[in-house]
Amino acid sequence: MPFALNQIDAELVTLDRELLRRSIRSVDTPCGTEIQIGGKSLLAFCSNDYLGLANHPELIAALSEGAKRFGTGSGASHLISGHHAIHDELEAKLALTQAGAIPHARALFFSTGYLANISAITALSLIGEKTSIYSAALNHASLIDGIRLAKAQTSIEVHVFNHHHLAELEEVLSHDTAPNKLIVTDGVFSMDGDLAPVQELLRLANQYDALLMIDDAHGFGVLGKHGYGILEDQTICSDRIIYIGTLGKAAGLNGAFVCAHEKIIAWLIQKARPYIYSTASSPALAFAVLRSIALIEGNLGQELRARLQANITLWKKGSTFNRWNRLKSDTAIQPIVVGSNETALQLARALDQLGYWIPAIRPPTVPKGMARLRMTLSAAHTTEQIQGLCKVLSDLETSLPKS
To answer: What is the value of pTM for the model shown?
Structure first.
């Protein structure tokens, strides 16, 4: 047997022993709050489908119509022959969603948020001869990997900061002589559910001549009067901002976009290798995303955001724990930190047996000793479903043995 296979076996045994091995569960039904896995019915409190649009009839019809009008595939990368007129229309609309926050805004459409983040960071690190990147400690893996790739392709300095204690960030910025500085942060932190202090980060960016990149994967569609995300919600406006919006969560489809000053987007088209060398997303998808944005910014979107907020309030009032720590969050992400990997897995299994699906989140996704249930709420959850979960979790906290 090759050395690699023997080594993999040994590493997998270690992961099993440390309760860190991941597994895949296949869902039999469309995305929703009520799903089936292997014929078993479960209430899902783990999806990022925050507005309940992933199985919306209008988006199903739009995707079908898009395929009839534009075909199923793009055929090539954007810079060869894969960029269709419907991509132009979508990017123009995406830019409009951020036009109140970013002067001279232009947008680029990507197949995933991971690619969008990697593309933006690696391209922006190539501006000038020296770059410093400042990364929030709890940033998503795609941001971390983008910084790692940037560091591999050019000489950059990387600084990690705590978004709760910006005095340390300011201290380092005040002594930084690099001409190109980039501050990178999640908008809504995906494992804790809290918001980045974007107004204060922008103040620092202005004072120390830095760009500010915000990955708003869990904010677009949910935050702001029209669902345009954290910039609208916080009334932010600056040409220093690079905004990343995700379309596979609240928007109910797939893809992502980078929105920034038109000169920055022009630079990405020249230097962002994942954009240059990836096959463009299906034009049918772009057509459906346009319909999703119309729903998000219209009356339905406002109704769904209000319903989601009501569900968040209901959950926070009904969930109280003595042994476990429900992190402070006003967003749809409501984590319950239980500590050990064993407890998190034990709790997830118990919930599964009772008809609830909330997977255990363990290191390296979260810090060691901070294993949790990453519970998420949707506008599609009912009052009865949320109240039932509160009761079940309260009973489990009392009945499950301490690890």
So the answer is: 0.95
